[in-house]
Amino acid sequence: MLVHSRTGKWATWSVFFVLFVPLFAVPLLVILAASFTTNWSGAFPSGPTTKHYAAATGGDSLQALTTSLITAVSASLLALTIGSWAALAAASMRRRGRRFLDALFMLPVAVPSVVVGLAVLVAFSKPPMLLNGTRWIVILAHTILVTAFAYSSVSAAIVRLDPMYEQAAASLGARPGYVLWRIKLPLLLPSLTAAAGLCFALSMGELSATMMLYPPDWTPLPVQIFAATDRGSLFTGAAVAVVLMGTTLLVLLGVSRIRTRASYR
User: Fold this and answer.
1) What pLDDT is attached to residue 55?
2) What is the pLDDT of residue 199?
3) What is the pLDDT of residue 186?
4) Taken in order 208, 213, 216, 219, is the CA torsion positive or negative?
5) Could you give the CA distance from residue 25 to residue 92 in angstroms, rounded to a whole number?
């Protein structure tokens, strides 16, 4: 939109495709092609088949997909609640308090996720908070990892809010709780839905911390993909990866529609 000449537009699109295709499109297309093949010994796959999707959409894979969905939805809701509350609290603090909360919530992002997994494992493997070996430790780790993104997204949205609406409501006698629920949160709804979608996508693909924490009866889909490829079942693992990508994309499209409707209200 910022380029007006035809030559500039063609150059911009050319640079985009040169960067986008090899870096993003080709790896995903390779995974998609591998999920429909039985052999790949040359430059192109051979032996087209759909049998890998029978294993990817049933049995243990279906259970793992359900586990990933429950984990991602739970972690996203918890992260959105905690991150939004913290962002609203930080907005009313002085600069030093805001900096402290920023550092606190961004700390899990500043270290490798496997470090977060190890920290959660050590912290919750003894009474009184014995979560090791349960599904709750996985949900907790995912919540810790994605809350930073909810916090930063909502914080940025709060900064962009026009204080005129709150001031007008307060001048008419509205209580702080009423202003929060009926004015501030509705104005933040597009940013809240965007943060929820981001948290969901990140949780669906999380592997490093999950590998350290998951119990045998709570195996998310990324762990199953890793296990399949580790056994040498690359094509089945590719089909499971496609199912993971497709499910995540469908949920994000749904969240995007909710966000679009919220933006036009």
Assistant:
1) 83
2) 95
3) 84
4) negative
5) 43
Residue for token digits 């603090």? 93
* C-alpha torsion 217→243→23→254, nearest 10: -100
Q: Residue with structure tokens 């999380």?
A: 206
Distance CA 94, CA 76 (A): 28
209: Cα separation from own chain's centroid? 14
Where is 97: in which H helix or E strand?
helix 95-110
Q: Is 38 helix (H, G, I), strand (E, B) or coil?
A: strand
- Would you state the pLDDT for residue 134? 93
What pLDDT score was predicted for residue 126? 87
DSSP readout, 45-73?
A: -EEE--HHHHHHTSHHHHHHHHHHHHHHH
Confidence (pLDDT) at 121: 94
CA-to-CA distance for 137 and 124, rounded, in angstroms? 8
The list of the chain residues with pLDDT below 50 reads none
Contact 243, 57 (CB under 8 A): yes
